[in-house]
Amino acid sequence: MSSNPVIAMLGRKLRLAVIGGGPDSFIGGMHRLASRIDDRYEIVTGILSSKPVKAKKIAGEIGICSDRIYSSVTEMLDAEAVRKDGADVVAIMTPNDSHCEYVLASLARGFDVICDKPMTNTVAEAQTVHQKVKETGLIFCLTHNYTGYAMVRQAKAMVQADEIGTIRLIQVEYVQGGRADENDPDPSGDIPWRHDPEKSGPSLVMGDIGSHAHNLVRFISGLEIEEIAAEVGSIVPKRQFHDFAGALLRFNNGARGVFWVTQAAAGVENGLGIRISGTKGTLEWMQEIPQILTFKPLSAPAQIRTPNGPGTLPLAAHSLRMVAGHPEGFPEGFANIYSDAAEAIAARRSGKQANPLALHFPTSADGLAGIQFIAAAIESSSKGGHWVKCATF
Amino acid sequence: MSSNPVIAMLGRKLRLAVIGGGPDSFIGGMHRLASRIDDRYEIVTGILSSKPVKAKKIAGEIGICSDRIYSSVTEMLDAEAVRKDGADVVAIMTPNDSHCEYVLASLARGFDVICDKPMTNTVAEAQTVHQKVKETGLIFCLTHNYTGYAMVRQAKAMVQADEIGTIRLIQVEYVQGGRADENDPDPSGDIPWRHDPEKSGPSLVMGDIGSHAHNLVRFISGLEIEEIAAEVGSIVPKRQFHDFAGALLRFNNGARGVFWVTQAAAGVENGLGIRISGTKGTLEWMQEIPQILTFKPLSAPAQIRTPNGPGTLPLAAHSLRMVAGHPEGFPEGFANIYSDAAEAIAARRSGKQANPLALHFPTSADGLAGIQFIAAAIESSSKGGHWVKCATF
Amino acid sequence: MSSNPVIAMLGRKLRLAVIGGGPDSFIGGMHRLASRIDDRYEIVTGILSSKPVKAKKIAGEIGICSDRIYSSVTEMLDAEAVRKDGADVVAIMTPNDSHCEYVLASLARGFDVICDKPMTNTVAEAQTVHQKVKETGLIFCLTHNYTGYAMVRQAKAMVQADEIGTIRLIQVEYVQGGRADENDPDPSGDIPWRHDPEKSGPSLVMGDIGSHAHNLVRFISGLEIEEIAAEVGSIVPKRQFHDFAGALLRFNNGARGVFWVTQAAAGVENGLGIRISGTKGTLEWMQEIPQILTFKPLSAPAQIRTPNGPGTLPLAAHSLRMVAGHPEGFPEGFANIYSDAAEAIAARRSGKQANPLALHFPTSADGLAGIQFIAAAIESSSKGGHWVKCATF
Amino acid sequence: MSSNPVIAMLGRKLRLAVIGGGPDSFIGGMHRLASRIDDRYEIVTGILSSKPVKAKKIAGEIGICSDRIYSSVTEMLDAEAVRKDGADVVAIMTPNDSHCEYVLASLARGFDVICDKPMTNTVAEAQTVHQKVKETGLIFCLTHNYTGYAMVRQAKAMVQADEIGTIRLIQVEYVQGGRADENDPDPSGDIPWRHDPEKSGPSLVMGDIGSHAHNLVRFISGLEIEEIAAEVGSIVPKRQFHDFAGALLRFNNGARGVFWVTQAAAGVENGLGIRISGTKGTLEWMQEIPQILTFKPLSAPAQIRTPNGPGTLPLAAHSLRMVAGHPEGFPEGFANIYSDAAEAIAARRSGKQANPLALHFPTSADGLAGIQFIAAAIESSSKGGHWVKCATF
Question: A148-322+367-382 belongs to which homologous superfamily?
């Protein structure tokens, strides 16, 4: 995209089919909003509920043409695959345990795919997805949306431009309070799918937010985690799922790090934060005030970097619509992932070169790394905190 | 809108015709983005340049159907007024001196109108626009977008709920650095329209940003300014337009205030800020970190109010799409103005009652008050800073 | 002083006689604390109450030797003036209406003087004090302590070093909530001296805090205010003293400014803040977080300047005792005024040159300028807000 | 102390003998400043250098009477122990390896002791010191000064008052940049004592700042660390001493925590910070802005707690000299430790009850816990990050 959204309106919009994200889902609405912001997509069909009758009802309500209202994902994919004006892209925002199936079904029919995180629940599934993406050459975009924030991308660009030197130390934390109250959700009510490890994966806190923290570290630093010493567990009583995880990290360049995620910190909203120190300085960013990136050089005054403010690098400028002083928010960060995927998809379909600045959205390789990281954290935790290797493919 | 954007997708989108806002215009792209965010509009036609050939070319580029590509505003309005699927709404984002003409032309043909601020350049024009809006009963929405921010609306709702008591003191400032450099724009180049008082109005700084500051004060406080003692002038040498204004204010309930706006504060990005003190406490808000509203009660600890955080009132919740901790930005604030106007327009067209929470967008009455305020400030300044009455209609 | 307080301990301590500041006075304790911090003074005598019996009792309690316990200021000054080991300096922290008398009495006996602000209640008194100081050649230090903060001094030094260029725009505000509650102090109880204009001067808010704001502006900018257009008044009902003042300012270099002070902003603690914009950038400082000075250059990222952090200039380093990252506070800022006065007094007494970095404490000239500013603000306010000249001596 | 420092001036000052802290030492000057702030001490003698000639010279320079200028610590302690007006208290601020010897020598002669941290270099020494303190019944105060900050004490008091409920999660970090530059200190120059493990202890980063972080956690939470899984090491190349440490923590009530300290984070000044989450809310505090304590309740807006602001609890009020809005700093936090020790020492000597609010300074038990924690961290690190028990005495 560009600072003038007119440009974004050029060319045919991509036709999007959505799976999941019905009226009770925050993330579903978020995906659709993200798809609209830069006008690169139009939603042409969707299955927003796993119940056929309800799925058809919702599709009508959100304005899907009657000839594209389907009962099931398979029916939709089959039909759209053969329509002349069929969907180009499938966006998946269902419970985690179904990601793998829907991704594979979509790839098999030639659709590019946008998928919510975590990519899958198991390493085996993640490897399968990654393998299929590579085989098909289709675009696979995983919505680790926090790496869509412009100032996160500015941080990555500053690292790449050697503005902080060789990275030595990384701290990442993702602290939320949404699961601090032991009576919420009401234990006598229905169990939300996230509280069922069959659906949400082996570690709720790691899948929900740990995977974001992991992706953020890798995105900005460009480093891989080689070893991890971790504890993953439940701090709120009577709870069957993980609500905190701590870890020490060793990176492939010798850097050291620390990782802390929890959803049980009462009163905290959405505290994702990172500090990366290199030989030349330190970068600090916090999601709750995403428009500020603090840069502390080794021997010069600390700087407040702002969106499109002085010193903005091309990757950040590419990720912004507003002039300086007009803060963009969470929706625009999410939209950056969608719009960059659109650029890549349009390029793939046309055989042209994509804008290289657009090629920073998370892929199946990133998704696989995330699932491997979760597995390693659980392994270390079960082995008394000992260092374990973190597989990198 | 609602916290689940699915709801926003219900019902027919409004058909939007745009006037102005071509590729070089920041605000044009912003208007179009705002119209997309909640999916309440579709742009069906537009004249994005005052030059007929260029206007047609741009219309094609942004995907306007060939049978709705026009050469002039008049041609467009005439044609759309009689089409069965003609535009419902006209959005105007041209230089200030043409607002009045285009608004009147649109109203005369029965279109609801969304217009960029300031509403007009003169009080007489503003009175005419306001009179016509009242006569026609059509919806007129002025995009003083800063009052679309959720936490500004939270502030207004807290004032209405008597959380700060009777208002006594108001400080507002709008400090920018965009015109601090005396060589920018290059004095040897073309004069931008904003630098020509014929086009941008009698006081550039007051029209550009003073009108926003004025609107913000009235929106949150619910008070009117009765008297003003002001200085309006140019601080950067060799400059023909105003770049700063200061004023003391007296409100209709006896409260006192201070007002300071400038575009010549080197290095400042977009520093719109307000502090309102009542008998029970003080509210503070700054546009550069719009997700935080600070509330300082008389005898209790200061509070950080956040979007959809604890204590969020209905007007703010109505203005938010995200759950707590996921900051929305400038585009969403702007979109709130657009989406609330959509609600009002749809209600007017259907004869149904609009959601009362949607009826807080700026109207022609607000626009007129703004132009009267600018006139009073200039009058006081020319009279040696003496207090002058600020007309309220 | 120096970053190593050992140095400060060199040489004989100055013998200090205090007038005022008994057990119920915050500022009295603050003065004595300030005198201790750098070990440049020892309190040898004092009259801490205007009631002779009480004065003697308190003197005993704070450890004054029995042969230096006096009944009255005159008795004390007379006796100390002839003792071989008599007081060197008199520190005055009585109600404002007595400052002039005690200063003159002290100067007449050859004592250097440290005096709390405002210097006097009337312009005539201020002129007399200033004249006597000039005639005697004695040191007179006025405790406008906010200009003792290291980062305020860093701001001054940056202005002097042309880091922000030619000053164009100045905003200063001093917002407190201490007099927001109309029932505090209890209207049925004794009237505190501050609420009696006979004792506290013609404008309580201007004497209490307006004088600080004025001093801060002049200290950092090095500019004089030539004209002022002001309103000074009472916003809390049934109040006989001023609790707010607003003003527009014109400086002697053509710069423009705005001034806002109040003690009626419910819930605000001690909000003294300043923003100064020059051709090259803007400085921002707020007293409640005094360890941060924000510098926003015209075309480079904003900087966070910290005490003894990178870019610290000599005047700030001179005003600090701690290494970077160890914030000093209000007491140290106050102590800087005391310790710089000690340096000047010791130099005067020894006939040696004082460290030029120590010669930035407020003097009688600053005190006179403050009283003249208050008078001009009241005059403008009474003349309907018209611009009036602000006398500069 | 009290909000009126007059009170602090009552009674005889304690006579202080200092060991260490010569002109090149930051901490030496800091100790002496801390002893002055509340006027509870007078320095009567001292050995500020390990070199006899230099020690005598410095003693003269700082104003020690000639009959109390000594050549060695032993000579000083012996002489002062028998003087009628001999020292009451010995303050030790020498390199870490000598703490144990000087503490024992002081206790043996009946002096109360104030000692810089870490208490000793080895667990055995720490146990000896702690045992001797218990045996003698003398006061031993360890200057973990960060727990002297008023808002840290407010946090402790809020925990004790159950305002955050049962503690579940603790994050502590101490991030500095002072040892980020691998050429500083100059490797070809003299090795500072801190870089010699014989003098500074087995882990420089843990002794220097890890011990502060550990003390801060225990002070606020009131919990003990039962188990630790850690890595302690050097991240800057060619370095013989530790410059970072990370750890996962298990507390004696089942709470979990994370610990991260480093002196190699380029550009960071003195970033000690803590977040403690209980069942009812979360507290956050950062040393660089020590005047703010953020409290995030489970279901109410986040609060900004300030010194002597609304909600201040007695322990914090006891630790403050200023009214609200007048921030105290690092020196006052350090002085709180000194002044509380003075209260305890004066009470011990007089046989009276000390003010219970003064009895929160760190003791030999805290010092021992700190050394045991460092030992456990090193043990876990050497065992591959496995969980190890953290001894508690």
Answer: Dihydrodipicolinate Reductase; domain 2 (3.30.360.10)
Distance CA C70, CA C72 (A): 6
Q: Give the residue carrying structure tokens 């940049």.
A: D177
Spatial contact of D362 and D144, defined as CB atoms under 8 Å apart: yes
Q: Which numeric CATH code is attached to D149-322+367-382?
A: 3.30.360.10
- Per-domain residue ranges for chain C? 5-145, 149-323+367-382
Q: Which of A339, A354, A281 is nearest to A148 (CA)?
A: A339
Residues of chain C found within 8 Å of residue B254, distances taken between Cβ atoms: 235
Taking CB atoms and an 8 Å cutoff, what residues of chain D touch B302? 303-304, 306, 309
Confidence band of C3 (pLDDT split at 50, 70, 90): very low
Neighbour count for residue D342 (Cβ, 10 Å): 31
- pLDDT by residue for chain B (393 residues), tens only, comes to 333 343 344 468 999 999 999 988 999 999 999 999 999 999 999 999 999 999 999 999 888 999 999 999 999 999 999 999 999 999 999 999 999 999 999 999 999 999 999 999 999 999 999 999 999 999 999 999 999 999 999 999 999 999 999 999 999 999 999 999 988 777 677 778 888 888 889 999 999 999 999 999 999 999 999 999 999 999 999 888 999 999 999 999 999 999 999 999 999 999 999 999 999 999 999 999 999 999 999 999 999 999 999 999 999 999 999 999 999 999 999 999 999 999 999 999 999 999 999 999 999 999 999 999 999 999 999 999 999 999 865
With residue C278 as reference, give the H or E element that holds it: strand C270-278
Q: Which helix (H) or strand (E) holds A130?
A: helix A123-136
Q: What is the pTM of this model?
A: 0.97
Tokens 């991030």: give the residue.
D175
C323 to chain D: which residues are within 8 Å by CB? 26
How many other CB atoms are there within 10 angstroms of residue C351's CB atom?
A: 6
Distance CA(A282)–CA(C128), nearest Å, equals 56
CA atoms within 13 A on the CB side of D237: 7
Q: Given the structure tokens 């029932």, which residue do they identify? A: C183
Burial bucket for residue A28 (CB in 10 Å: 0-12, 13-18, 19+): buried
**To 5 degrees, how large is the angle CA B345–CA B351–CA B357?**
55
H/E element holding D45? Answer: strand D41-47
The one-character DSSP state at B360 is T
Q: Do D175 and A236 touch (CB under 8 A)?
A: no
| Residues A47, C146: Cα–Cα separation, whole Å | 65
How close A301 gets to chain C, by Cα (Å)?
Answer: 5
Predicted ipTM of the assembly: 0.95
Contacts of A295 in chain C (CB under 8 A): 301
Q: Chain B closest CA to C244's CA: distance in Å?
A: 9
DSSP sequence for A279-298: SSEEEEEETTSTT-EEEEET
| B5:A30 CB<8 A | yes
Q: Which CATH class is domain C5-145?
A: alpha beta
Identify the CATH class of B5-145+360-364. Answer: alpha beta
Name the DSSP class of C206. I
3-state secondary structure of B33: helix
Is residue D111 within 8 Å of D138, Cβ to Cβ?
yes
CATH 3.40.190.10 fits domain B146-323+367-382: no
Classify C149-323+367-382 by CATH class: alpha beta
Q: B230 pairs with which residues across the strands?
A: B247
The dihedrals phi and psi of D39, each to the nearest 5 degrees, come to 65, 30
Residue pair C19/C25 in contact by the 8 Å Cβ criterion: no
Which two structure tokens, joined as six digits, stand for B219? 């929106």
Question: CB-CB: which of C62, C271, C324 is closest to D9?
Answer: C62
D330-350 helix and D150-160 helix, angle to the nearest 10 degrees: 70
Q: Which residues pair with D173 in a beta bridge?
A: D260, D273
